[in-house]
Target: Carboxypeptidase Q
Amino acid sequence: QIVLVSGHLDSWDVGQGAMDDGGGAFISWEALSLIKDLGLRPKRTLRLVLWTGEEQGGVGAEQYYQLHKENISNFDIVMESDEGTFKPSGLGFTGNAKARDIVKEIMTLLQPINVTDVYDNADGTDIDYWMREGVPG
Model:
């Protein structure tokens, strides 16, 4: 089973906007790095994807989806960091009620840093293909 953690390089190579979302790529990278540094052994495969082509129509995400959609039942959740590296307040989430309850339970672990909100409807160009097919995001 796969947990996909991702971010994209949102800004043009000579433009502004690197925090939305070049920062998300680093957030995602660091999340997996911390899990490794803590010596944790996840029960699922954690897959980091650093998307490209988001501003050009999401072509990177579409290509990845087309290559992996036949294994969609192996994806437990898809996550995308797409709002910069500002102070977090929680997660946007799209999925069924049972999955939402699991996410809310997990978010209680972040109480010490006051990041516990679970907002309705995740949004992300790079994970929309998966969420439309019912994968929680």
Summary: The chain has one domain: 2-133. The chain has four helices and five strands. The first strand starts at residue 2 and ends at 8.
